[in-house]
Amino acid sequence: xxxxxxxxxxxxxxxxxxxxxxxxxxxxxxxxxxxxxxxxxxxxxxxxxxxxxxxxxxxxxxxxxxxxxxxxxxxxxxxxxxxxxxxxxxxxxxxxxxxxxxxxxxxxxxxxxxxxxxxxxxxxxxxxxxxxxxxxxxxxxxxxxxxxxxxxxxxxxxxxxxxxxxxxxxxxxxxxxxxxxxxxxxxxxxxxxxxxxxxxxxxxxxxxxxxxxxxxxxxxxxxxxxxxxxxxxxxxxxxxxxxxxxxxxxxxxxxxxxxxxxxx
Length: 264
Known about the structure:
14% of the residues lie in helices and 29% in strands.
């Protein structure tokens, strides 16, 4: 359980963001009501579960998933083991970027607040932001000239749109809630997947993975560095069938977090 990030840091604040009046904005992504991620983390199966702490009330537990046998109980080569795996090619860590406006004065992003943090919930293909290396799920830490404390994403986008800046200097945290699994597709068209530490997690038919671009309640973002969550089912199926017999890297994100960023 220690291998995956703790979602409790995204707890929704009890006090609402203060109102703003100088620029009208009918839309809002303020996160001021539902504590959807408070007191939760996700386990080795990618399931959101309550934190095991004395000071956090325990909500009713969901029905447990079928127990998956450990690596030691599995036949040889049934589940992928940690070996030399193709890198995910998705940057991580803190990064400074400069994002210029395009000819229409836009940078091509949507920003959403989650608790005390701001995330990119949409990055337009071939936009200035995309060309600068920004991607879905990146966390915005700073933007030069803007105070990001207690400001909604829609309000921040309004301020940026009305500013005189020709470019925006940002510090972002790349993909803080993505993580990698390792997988292998067998001749029966099943995807067996494990943690990078070698713990078997389960298996699923690849047509189900391709249909929803998901592995159980994990959103599949990329396969060996190729972004797939925006591709058609047939395209994802082609990538998976081409990998039969090979060990692959699966970049995933909790489905609850993915849906939360896209819910508006």
